[in-house]
């Protein structure tokens, strides 16, 4: 029935909670841990990880460095000279955008990415040029 409260009223009993036994919780936890261990073990086996071979830090770093180049300082140069300099470094002119500047006409005001930025070979560099 219920618990009495107030005059002639009863409060309904709360529903019973079904609780997992300690044994069930241990079995579920152990099964989950075993599943994680199996998945991790299989991923190591399939990737070929675990011991021999080249250390992870040697080959990829040298390859990434060899395939990137620093954007040169081009500000103040003539746009044609700047394009030639980019070409020598295996970079391309992505766009030429005219911007107001106190520099002489046709001179590079700035670049994007900025000078000194490391970019992949054959990347495009935008030249911001003073108007003619």
Give an overview of the whole structure.
By secondary structure, the chain is an alpha+beta fold. Among the domains are: 20-46; 71-129, Trypsin Inhibitor V, Chain A (2-Layer Sandwich), CATH 3.30.10.20. It is 33% helix and 24% strand. It contains three helices and seven strands, in the order ββααβαββββ. The chain has helices at residues 22-47, 59-66, 79-88, and strands at residues 2-5, 9-12, 68-70, 92-98, 108-112, 118-120, 124-129. The strands form three sheets. The protein has a three-stranded mixed β-sheet, covered by helices on one side. A two-stranded antiparallel sheet has the order 1-2. The longest helix is centred in the N-terminal third of the chain and has 26 residues, at 22-47. The N and C termini lie far apart (94 Å). Mean pLDDT is 80; it is low at 54-65.
Beta-strand residue percentage:
15-25%
Number of strands: 7
The Rg value, from CA coordinates, equals 34 Å
Oligomer: single chain
Uncertain regions spanning at least 5 consecutive residues: 54-65
Mean pLDDT across the residues is 80
What is the CATH top level name of the domain at 71-129?
Alpha Beta
Question: If classified by CATH, what would the architecture of the domain at 71-129 be?
Answer: 2-Layer Sandwich
- Indicate the percent of residues in helices: 25-40%
Instruction: State the major sheet.
Output: 3 strands, mixed
Strand numbers in spatial order across the main sheet? 4-7-5
Output the CATH topology of the domain at 71-129.
Trypsin Inhibitor V, Chain A
